Amino acid sequence: MVQIKMHLLVCGGTGCRASESAVLVEQLNHQLKLNGLADEVKVITTGCFGFCEKGPIVKVIPDNTFYTNVTPEDAEEIVKEHVLKGRKVNRLLYEDPETQEHVSDSKHMEFYQKQVRIALRNCGFIDPENIDEYIVRDGYAALGQVLASDPKETIDIIKKSGLRGRGGAGFPTGLKWEIAAGNKADQKYVVCNADEGDPGAFMDRSILEGDPNSIIEAMAICGYCIGATKGLIYIRAEYPLAIHRLEIAIKQAREYGLLGKDILGSGFDFDIELRLGAGAFVCGEETALIHSMEGFRGEPTIKPPFPAQSGYLGKPTNVNNVETFANVPPIILKGWEWFNSIGSEKSKGTKVFALAGKINNVGLIEVPMGTTLRDVIFEIGGGIKDGKRFKAVQTGGPSGGCLTEQHLDTPIDFEHLAAAGSMMGSGGMIVMDEDDCMVSVAKFYLDFIVEESCGKCAPCRIGSKRMHEILEKICQGKGTMEDLDYLENLGKVIKDTALCGLGQTAPNPVLSTLLYFRDEYVAHVIDKKCPAGQCKALKSYTIDPEKCIGCTLCARTCPTNAIIGDKKVPHVIDQSKCIKCGACYDKCKFGAIQIR
Amino acid sequence: MDKIKLTIDNMPVEVVKGTTIFQAARQVGINIPALCYMNLEHLGVENRPGACRICVVEVEGRRNLAPSCSTDCTEGMVVKTNTPKVLNARKVVMELILSNHPNDCLACPSNNKCELQTLAATLGIREIPMVENAAMSTYRKDHSLSLQRDMDKCILCRRCETMCNDVQTVGALGTINRGFISVVAPAFEQDLADSSCVFCGQCVAVCPTGALTRTDDTGRVFKALADPTKTVVVQTAPAVRAALGEEFGIKPGTSVTGKMAAALRRLGFDKVFDTDFAADLTIMEEGTELLGRIGAFLGGDTSVKLPLLTSCCPAWINFFEQNYSDMLDQPSTAKSPQQMFGAVAKNYLAKKMGVKREDLVVVSVMPCIAKKYECTRKEFSVDGNPDVDISISTVELASMIKMANIDFVSLPDEDFDHPLGESTGAAVIFGATGGVMEAAVRTAYEVFTGKTLERLDFKELRGFEGIRTASVDFNGTTVNVCIAHQLGNARKVMDGVRSGELNFHAIEVMACPGGCIGGAGQPYHLGDSSVLKARAESLYKEDADKPLRKSHENPYITKLYEEFLGEPMSELAHHLLHTHYFDKHHKI
Questions:
Q1: CA of B464, closest CA in chain A: separation in Å?
Q2: What Cα–Cα distance (Å) separates residue B138 from each residue in A101, B74, B100, B127, B155?
Q3: Do A231 and A223 contact (CB within 8 A), yes or no?
Q4: Does residue B307 have a cis bond before it (omega within 30 degrees)?
């Protein structure tokens, strides 16, 4: 038998696949074969490494060499140099933006140093399409352990661990299980909420793509604890790769007797079906999700009754989010004390965030609860792009709030984010810099809410539309100070009266920016200026006659012939013709175009 | 029962567990305003989507405001229903709703009958902020023979959806689209006429705004009345007299038969007749048909179709033709009273009056809007001339009376004209659920047994329970009957009949809650189901006060058979008074 000497882990997440990582895998295999290494070196397509900014990623095991931005053409060099000769391909190594030195392996990358990976433990490490690799990493050991014990003990472990729902609301998971377990019924259900809908968020998708078996195992554990024999995963149809890998994992688990009748000889039956959602954000709300699964319009209903009392088909149903489930097997195996020791006072364990926006290391990270925003943004995230100044960070998805520089040392957990006027949400984190207009940012999020409101309750259906209209008015320079007061009152009323979590949090981007960036609103209203220079209606382009040398480049570029001037004479922009497209600004080599 | 103590606006309240804040507040004289919430308690129908958010209240210790209609009281709860926070929230939400509602109350069919309008006044709305920039969600208007949909006025209270889906199980209406452009509509926003709508109109009966309204045919009636070449006769259904007074401020449950006849005469109708006459005729035909079927069955004929289903209600017939098209020979072939009247008027009365068929205009006043559709069914016309030309609702009649400046309340009581104005008590109770069955039993018993019925009041057939069954002793032969009102109940019964689980000799079905008295052509009950109860009681009282209470005792009916029809189920009667049904399964 030939021993495998080296593994090449290639990211097979959706992002890296879009950058041809599948072709890269073919090329690596091809090169290994050409060089007679096919038996000794194995290429494995894994889930997401999280370092999406620099994908596709290739990680070499055992030396942890971390190659970034690898193209299919690089396969030959990696095989010939690194695999054959043991020489790292320097140009593909990650370059530290500060020191500008190549970092030899992932252990020395700041991006990974502060991370603690529990939910993402297998992502970027195992082949998600091979259950054996999951099993080798202690997969299904927790299920075996649980099936040999009293369900109450497991619920107790989850309760003591302090695990809280990662979908946004932070409800204690163990308590949720206990309530569902306590309700008697002939049939109960375990539902995994994989309807991840926040713009820019892909935590759940990455877990499902990278480690689908962890969810299956956790759902079976939950089923045993609450007395359910059926599991349903509600996943959005826009996640084809995650669906594909889940289907493979479910099939393999059935083949191994880890799903189906009499699991591991325990007498416990459990099986899982997928339900595909049609891409409505509100279906992430559990009552809406359940209605959607039942074939009804995906809209929330008033709680109580809670799903644990009357959920899918009127039966007790326990709904947990993907990331919540991913935490369960490690808690069983390592003990509640271990999990409870990580995190902050009331928020235990870790949280996965999708870093996006004006940040250097766009990607997926997992940090202990209580890590500060500063650590996440500046250390793990590598700071703001292009050396710009940090302005705000938006946490909690479209209905979260915007936090500012003064909050950078806020520990990230359920309590602190809420106290600061934002929320944990499912884990989206969008970073904004000095070029971002906060009124426009609020408008952008409201745009999303207006689109995604189910339309059931009046405050959300009409209120979000009206807030959006007022923000548009302000961005047009037509707002009044009364509008700001109305906006604030309207936002508070919607928060107080909307039916579900979506509506109740919909005003957050508006209220938090009104609170922390009121000056910017006032500038739009009183001075008719957009300080960030983003609002087109409030922007004007002019040419600095001191700097303009009359090269005519801008005049030739202008699509509306708004720039007038002879050669070698400073040019002028006719404001009545200017459409503020910014083409002149981009072309001018002398910095003569000014935006005000 | 577990009791719970709480305080509402500083007043101690004790309620049974499961009571909502909304209900508890009523106990201490606090009427929390609400818009989407509707509770027809006598019928067991509740709409509680928690959608409008008008009924919010402050609950101590709760982070947001609680919708009182759907929040249960808990021990020690401290509720405030009128704090500045609550009043502000209510007002802002109301302003939002109004900001997306056409501002055309003065020209709206629901003007002065609109719950939204009333609530705006109650909440002291004086302006609608931001309205100059506010987009409106607008939709294509949908006109049908029976009802009009103007969804620009819809506030998404979802009452119509509850009626159409949960109560009637018709499933024509549902919410489509999402967010700001959400709207209640048939699937794919098709026209109601192309959907599975049966025109029962219960959506209209509960709509709090002018989004769903009755088709207005008053103009056509005025025009006919003004046409010197036309002879215009009118028939009024039993349930109309029990509710018409409400439109003039008369207490619900007051029968206004005499004033109604007087008003119709003043409006210019040439003859003022009564659908009740045709109801007596229906009993003669349908009762004979029932006895025929029972007799054949007892005689060993296994091909006979039992149970016999009543066929008075056009919405029920639509529902039946769609859902039970495999059982088309099950209902009675008797036409509905409206159509029997039309057939008799155009074929018998016209000759008697010396008027050509096309110059006789038959107008019906109905508690129903499906009747507008029914009179256009092709099988009910001869060479394109319908037996009933125009059907208007109770409310449309009230509107005509008002337009004609008639002081309804001070009108004297007048009688109907003859021959088609005479009726018995049996016909009057057609307007309430169970009435047709009771009327049929009165006649069928005497015909079958040859004995005089001693007890005329079949209380066991009355009431508001959705499905009622009774066994009547026909001198040793037990006749099992069933009564269902609301189509959802009819579906339960019919599914049982189809599967063979349920066995009856006859089943009465009325589509609307409480029967015709709860029809969509009646004045709005505004969610107060005690109004329906009062209307039913007034019909039973009128029946009790009548000298004749059995259809076969109506002397004009006897005369009609002697002069014209021969006998019940005769060939001519068959031709004029009976019909057949169509397979409309494709509509669902």
A1: 28
A2: 61, 42, 9, 21, 12
A3: yes
A4: yes
Q: Cβ of A490 and B135 within 8 Å? A: no
Domain boundaries along the sequence of chain A:
6-108, 131-339, 350-433, 438-527, 540-595
**Which alpha helices (DSSP H) does A498-577 contain, by range?**
501-505, 508-516, 518-522, 553-557
Note if B247 is an active site residue. Answer: no
Strands of A425-579 (E only): list them.
Answer: 428-433, 541-543, 563-564, 572-573
Segment A309-313 mean pLDDT = 95
Query: Token pair for residue A84?
Result: 């054959």
Contacts B96 to A, Cβ<8 Å? 458-459, 462-463, 466, 490
pLDDT value at residue B417: 95
Which of B113, B259, B271, B371 is catalytic? The answer is: B371
What's the longest Cα–Cα distance across chain B? 79
Total domain count, chain B: 3
Q: Which of B58, B247, B286, B396 is catalytic?
A: B286
Instruction: Give tens-digit pLDDT for A525-559.
Output: 999 999 998 898 998 899 999 999 999 999 999 99
Kindly report which listed range (B7-21, B358-372, B440-454) carries the lowest average pLDDT score: B440-454
Task: Give contacts of B129 with chain A, Cβ < 8 Å.
Answer: 486
Q: What is the DSSP letter of A4?
A: P
* pLDDT-derived band at B527, boundaries 50, 70, 90: confident
Interface residue of B64, B80, B161, B178 to substitute, partner A, most A CBs within 10 Å: B178
Distance CA B192, CA B142 (A): 7
Q: Do B15 and B4 form a contact (C-beta atoms < 8 A)?
A: yes
Is there a single domain that holds both residue B450 and residue B498? yes
Cβ atoms of B283 and B434 closer than 8 Å: no
Neighbouring C-beta atoms of residue B126, cutoff 10 Å: 8
Output the six-digit token pair for B441. 């039993």
The answer to whether A44 and A10 have CB atoms below 8 angstroms apart is yes
B231 and B207 in one domain? no
- Is B379 marked active-site? yes
Bridge partners, residue B447, by sequence = none
- Give, rounded to a whole angstrom, the gap between the first and last alpha carbons of chain A: 72
Average pLDDT of the residues of chain B: 94
Look at residue B326 and give its three-state secondary structure.
helix
Residues of chain A positioned with their CB less than 8 A from the CB of B85? 496
Q: Which CATH number fits domain A438-527: 1.10.238.10, 3.30.450.180, 1.20.1440.230, 1.10.10.60?
A: 1.20.1440.230
Mutate to test the interface with B, among A480, A497, A500 (most CBs of B within 10 A): A497
CA-based torsion, A544, A550, A555, A556: positive or negative: negative
The pTM for the full model equals: 0.91
Position A354: which residue type?
A
Residue B524 is classified by DSSP as: P
Range(s) of the domain holding residue B277: 219-587
Instruction: Supply the pLDDT for residue A253.
Output: 97
Is CATH 3.40.50.720 correct for A350-433?
no
Quick one: what percent of chain A has pLDDT higher than 70?
100
What's the whole-number mean pLDDT along residues B132-150?
92
- The phi, psi pair for B318, rounded to 5°, reads -60, -45
Which domain CATH number covers B281?
Answer: 3.40.50.1780
B214, B232, B259 — which closes off a domain?
B214
Cα distance from B495 to chain A (closest Cα, Å)?
22
Q: B548 by DSSP, 3-state: which?
A: coil
**Nearest chain B residue (CA) to A480:** B130
CA distance B17 to A517: 48
Residue A1's pLDDT is 55
Nearest to A216 by CA among A171, A178, A273, A162: A273
B84 in contact with chain A, both atoms CB, cutoff 8 A: no
d(CA B37, CA B158): 9
